[in-house]
Amino acid sequence: MNKVELKTDLYLGDCRRELGKIPDNFVDLIVTSPPYADQRQSTYGGVCVDEYVEWFLPISKELHRVLKPTGTFILNIKEKVVEGERSTYVMELILEMRKQGWLWTEEFIWHKKNCFPGKWSNRFRDAWERLLQFNKNKKFNMYQDAVKIPIGDWAKDRLKNLSLTDKIRDNARNGSGFGKNVSNWVGKETVYPTNVIHLATECNNKNHSAAFPRELPEWFIKLFTQEGDTVLDPFMGSGTTVEVANRMNRNSIGVEILPQYYEEVKNKFNPTLFHTIKPIINNETTEYQRSYAVY
Fold first, then answer.
1. Phi, psi of 141, rounded to the nearest 5 degrees
2. Do 227 and 141 form a contact (C-beta atoms < 8 A)?
3. Are residues 180 and 255 in the same domain?
4. Residues 175, 223 within the same domain
5. How far apart are CA 58 and CA 61, in angstroms?
6. Residues 273-287: what's their mean pLDDT?
7. What are the tens digits of pLDDT across the range 241-264?
8. Within this chain, do residues 130 and 84 fall inside the same structural domain, yes or no?
């Protein structure tokens, strides 16, 4: 029997200082949603648009330090509309982070299936948010098979009777150079997803003004980590990322500046609630013993 100790470390304080307590190259995945510019003023005070990049860069510098060379940083953020025009602070932040040494590897879109209705004179309601992927190196850990999805009902009829064209690489007629071999899908029950994630917003968490759904960090934890890896959320909030990582047998670290949220998360991870679980993997039993620390 393999025995593995999983740790959940919670820090109360400003992540610009608290991240300094984490060793270099220690974290496998960072998933977080910081306060957006000029928003959440009643809870986090709000950071104005003109100062946001300057405010965030010391944090991203620390995140770059603590992330392993094979790790990934997922940043959930979205520009707001100011006087009828979209702000550019997110694009400016991306450019400045690249100067820090980050690679802007990918951009996922979170389609919010139950976004709030609304009416504006010059735009429609917001139904999506950015999930920016940053890495330290071009080669990083990624477990794509863990997020495969069912191929869908379309395959039943489409793959039943293949033409000669379906059995070869058929190049696109527009001369783009893209092509497909339809026969490659025969016999497959699952396929890789797109970079658009369709999830409803979190409706049950009444104690936090901006909690995202548990399925969001879960998807990225599956994609970029394995059991026993370490997941960090430097803006822990209601503790969704830490809670999901713990349930998925990953070590977790959360940092929160507001005492009320920190206490709520701490109470969720009461040491008396911890128990030993024994998942069976490849006929071998791994015993995960959980430990918990607060700072």
1. -70, 130
2. no
3. no
4. no
5. 5
6. 53
7. 999 999 999 999 999 999 999 999
8. yes
